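User: Here's a protein and a ligand (iron/sulfur cluster). What would the complex look like?
Assistant: Let me lay out the input and then the predicted complex.
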Amino acid sequence: MKVDTIMNKDQELKMLTTQEIKEIEKAISIVPYKKAACVEALKVVQEHRSYVSDESLKEVASYMDMSAEELDSVATFYNLIFRKPVGRHIILLCDSISCWVMGYENIKEQLTHKLNIGYGETTADGRFTLLPNPCLGTCDCAPALMIGKDLYRNLKVEELDEILKKYE
Amino acid sequence: MATLYIDNQPHEVHSGNNLLEVCLSLGIDLPYFCWHPSLGSVGACRQCAIKVYKDENDKKGKLIMSCMEPVTNNQRISITDIEAKEFREQVIGWLMTNHPHDCAVCDEGGSCHLQDMTVMAGHTYRQFRYKKRTYKNQNLGPFINHEMNRCIQCYKCVRFYKDYAGGKDLDAFASKNKVYFGRHEDGVLESEFSGNLAEVCPTGVFTDKTLKQHYTRKWDLTMAPSICQHCSLGCNIIAGERYGSLRMISNRYNGDVNGYFICDRGRFGYEFVNAPDRIREPMLNNKVIGKTEVLEEIKRLLKEAKVIGIGSPRASLQSNFALKALVGKNNFYHGVSENEHDMADLAIKILKEGPVRTPTLSEVEKSDAVFILGEDLTNTAPMLALAVRQAVRVQPMKDVAKANIPDWNDAASREFIQDKLGPMFSATIHATKLDDIATQTYYASPDELARLGFAVAHILDNTVPDVSNLSPELNKLAEQIANSLLNAERPVIISGLSSATETVMRAAANVAWALHKKNKNTGLVLTMVECNSLGLAMMGGGRLDGAFNAILHNHADTVIVMENDLYRHGSSATVDKFLKMCKQVIVLDHSNHATIKKAHVVIPAGTFAESDGTLVNNEGRAQRFFQVYESTEVIQESWRWLLNMGVNAGNERMNKWKNFEDITRAISEEEEMLKGVETITPPANFRIAGQRIPREPHRYSGRTAMNAGINVSEPKPPEDPDSSLSYTMEGYRGQAPASLIPFFWSPGWNSVQSVNKYQEEVGGHLRGGDPGLRLLEADPNSSANYFTSVPEVFHPLEDHIWMVWTYHIFGSDNLSARSSSIAQRIPKPYVMVSPKDAEQYKLQDGQVLSFTIEKQSYSLPIKINSTLPHGVAALPYGFEGMPATELPCWGIVKPVANK
Amino acid sequence: MEKPLTQHIRKDGRPLSLKEYEQVGGYQSLRKIVKMSPQEVQNLVKESNLKGRGGAGFSTGLKWSFVPMNVPKPKYLVANADEMEPGTFKDRILLESTPHQLIEGMIIAAYAIQADESFVFLRWAYKTAAEAITLAIYEAQEAGYLGKNILGSGFDLHMHLHTGVGRYMCGEETALLNSLEGKRATPRAKPPFPQVSGLFGRPTIVNNVETFCCLPHIVNNGADWFKKLSLTKDAGTKLYGVSGKVKKPGAWELPMGVTLRELIEDHAGGMQDGLKFRGALPGGASTDFLVEEHLDVKMDFEGVAAAGSRLGTGTVVVLDDKTCPVGFVKNLEHFFAQESCGFCTPCREGLPWIEKILASIDNGDGRPEDIKLLEDHTKLLGPGNTFCALAPGAMEPLQSALKYFKEDFERHIREKGCHYEMEMATKALSQ
Ligand SMILES: Cc1cc2nc3c(=O)[nH]c(=O)nc-3n(C[C@H](O)[C@H](O)[C@H](O)COP(=O)(O)O)c2cc1C
Ligand code: SF4
Ligand code: FES
């Protein structure tokens, strides 16, 4: 009987793409109530739009029958939901113990130097965003980093150029 | 009961409660932050650590959080254990790593829970030598100030705002030591209960922004126990003054009524008292005159005149009674519309003659099924809406108990319940803010709502007449409602005056009565319009149109209007005509309005803050408010002015009433239904150890210098002939009787948390019983005299719309609307129409609809509301420019000419 | 030496397909359990003395036994594949190479507690694993191992993959449940335990990936066989790992109870040339250091506990004599401070403070009283004082570092800087 909300929904639907909605709906179908799929919904939008802008956040929130606050409360809790624009490629550099022992600091220094950005920053050309990341779970092959979906292990400073080159 | 050994001393305590609550109830000082008696425990702050021992041989013990542990029989705990103490001290140490050292400029300073706990935990020296983290603050609107750096991350703000009060626009953001509490962007806090953040927050993160405009340390206020004037629920408040202006309203705990919270209308509506256009001087034909002169003038007028008096549902019993005494019983009229008058009478009849009692607000919180008929509670009786929000948790909480999760274990309870809610049915004219917790909603015209009620009642008891032509859908809904009510242990039916339709209230009564045959625990709440609507009705008196007729037919020629703007209750044409025909119009009031503009004599009445008086809330509970301060010599209670007039006029009866107590006693003696009102507070000569109860805390500062700019010799403080409170800081230092508590304070507890020290047990009744006396009690043995006339199906008429009221928490109440903070929250006048009607009249949202009601034309922008039934339109009650005619009634839509 | 969990891992690292897995005996255990009662399965696992491999080492069978059996659906089962404990990389191996083994284990567990819904909570960074599991769940569904009426037994189980969005707290089982519910991953109070009120308020079991992977083998070979795999009282094999400056870092499935020395010297090939063993975290970042005197400690739950630490995840992080222990601990505490959920005071405010103290000691701003402050904190943030086990875990390496490497801390303060760095710098200069 809550016609009001349904009506508004129809208008706002247009802003999420059909593909996004399809993916979000799939996540919703798994859980007992809609809100429970909100982390999935954030992931879906981030997957398609590289980060969750304020506008995206509001769209998702309204689709999930949540307030922007409720959703942002969840979004800002997690490390890997990006609420600010990010580069085309995200470099996650492992800064945890085994990598630290195996020379992480050297890698970090070189990376920040080569990219001319610090943690949390994006290169001027929008190519890379550099983030520290807790243990990537490949400690026997430390130091390590991830770019996008690719994991690089047993890193050597000399290899960095070669690696970065792969990402446009 | 259980025996609990605290540092080897045995205590008899309630089993099942958590140890923190138990210790606090025993009067022990144990620091805490994240726990709250109404919000339960979550164990976040770790401040309430104590030691628990396996048995008497266990010397080492284990550190636990007292708020998270239920008390068990023969349990042994220690509060003084050195490890526990050191840990508690360090919790403050941790909080202080980031909490700024800005107490001197913090609004909370001196009444701060964090300061109290810092002292209590014994944290004195700082060991952290690094930078503090800082945050950006948000603009949260006119009520609440935000200063995030002070946050100690106790999570109580979100737990109150979101979990308890159902707000959606305040939350916790980010994580680790960057957790942030606020909105996702700047903007007005939407909840009607946002002001409670100022009391719930243990530091100065959320503070009262209106207090900031005229800031005073809380201990520098002159305070008195008072009653909120802004709706019919009668929440208990503390009002504080300094330098002749009212500075702050805060909650005054009453275990039966408002508990720990009040709504934003109640908290921020006070500034009408300080309004620049207040009536501060007597006026004769728009000229200021003195007190004696005005009384002389009135004496002269009254001698020759045939006088009638028009009272007010927002004035005290005493003032209404004094007016009635002055003009005579037959010349006393209620200053309310016919509908309001008759519905208030109907309410009394239902509550008094029927078998079903009105539960208190705290009892409503414990109801396990709710049926709301015709009331948009969030806007007409906000704290009742908050109570209903708790009631929907009652049913699922029964499963929580079965799973052996203590009800105070808040997070665990909520995780167990998830999104389950108990039965709550809301049948209103259009969508309301409570719909998010409703099992089912039904939107319809008032008569249709009544029909649903009748149908439910008929299902419950088939001696209630059946409803003809009920759609199968509606029948199904009625059955669902009836079943839910039947399955409940403590069901409550809620209705009231706002639908302005008697059939709705009758239907509600029928449901309650029919249910009562099956379940004696059934409750019925009827909300009224104003703070003393019920009290006024209980006193008897004519309708407003009677007053009009008296003048129109020359039975009278002079009117005394008391604390009332007639233009709010009668159509402007009628009121204009009425006032014009009166030879003399004498108005007593504190705030400016249209009627005053037409008055010959204007008399400055005291507001609640400058007055003593008694109000009767919708529950029939008589409650006393006390004068906070004497403002000027000429501003005094209406009843005092009326007594002056009576004495001048040689009124024998009135001559005997010298003060508040005399008049209150007279009420009790003469007014059948108000018997006993004089007993609700100790008498004016009540003293403890020979002393009065001070309105000012002993920390009150600058008294000798306050008037130094005017006169260096300190003036004598005013005497209070009407109560046992003093206007000074001298007097009895201990706890006053419940009805006389001007502020809560206890050694070591300077913040509002000190209230816990005043209760029989924490979160329970105040010591000696919660204040107020219920004057209306139903007789459970009386038989239900059902109402039998079922309204017809509502049929929309062509070119007509059925005009009804819709209420706004901010705007519908005339007094609070004058407060600048509230004024910022009042929407512009509008007319709400259904999408179908908008389409029919070819109007888009915001375009103007022209219509006439009783020949008067109105043009208002439309607000399309898809839940409003076709053929019905709603106008915001009490707004500037609204027809003061009796709604509901038909409005005629003017054909759109200017297209 | 039997290596039930890893014996079938392919050399190329590609995950075993359903077919390949079935060929090596995969999913056979299901045919056995459907002939058993749930209670019998629980008893079998209890008898096998399987202890949880997620770090706490709680008896798996016993944990299951707290799940109420005669309650309406749904009941939930969750695989904790969040693996974010620094120094830990064991579950990744199982997830990437034998996803069906995990699924089979989960079906057994679900059957034992009669759960009908299940989730794999996988950390975001494990992209390869995510693909492998997605495919494996699909294959298992198609083959009728998941879904309705599994193998005609009348038992239903649905399984979903949930990838996390990055926070160590998500590994804590109650925070994990909150995260799965689409909430902030803050932990929940216990009691009530998840077995009673877990995911969506329903009875729920959370187990570690490696724990699940043991189950098919226990069902196939019996409790006794499982117990005998071990060298000590704690049953089964264990996936051990070693990282740090050893010659051959890596992970190996070995009988429970091998010594730390064997791990480091035999399997990891000993310390890198020119370096000496100084100490090690036996099982991830939140375990106490073991030092030289502990090299012969048997790496099982009891043995490591007796040496004053915890087996934890069994993945060893080695500290060598040229690496600064202060910097080492600072790195760990930085991690913990970053990953605190911010719910309770000691953890939220205490850990950043500790990190700041360690940083100032490390960079030469330390003061003598700092050591006492750190020591006090290791006690103040101990078990029970904070809401969950994150902060107490964070205190383990710190308190043991203060015990075994105190001189290093003091020297930093005395010399106003890091002598390891100085040495490195001097060496670099002299070259
Ligand atoms: C901060 C924190 C992080 C944890 N992370 C993990 C994890 O990544 N994987 C895991 O299996 N257990 C983790 N645990 C332990 C789990 O809470 C839980 O004990 C475990 O999943 C139970 O599985 P088991 O009984 O099979 O060992 C963590 C605990 C804490 C306190
Ligand atoms: S803002 Fe206030 S109430 Fe909210 S967490 Fe911070 S200190 Fe607590
Ligand atoms: S009051 Fe007990 S932990 Fe906060």
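Summary: The pocket of FE2/S2 (inorganic) cluster (ligand 3) is lined by residues B 20, 32-35, 43-48, 65, 67 (CB under 6 Å).
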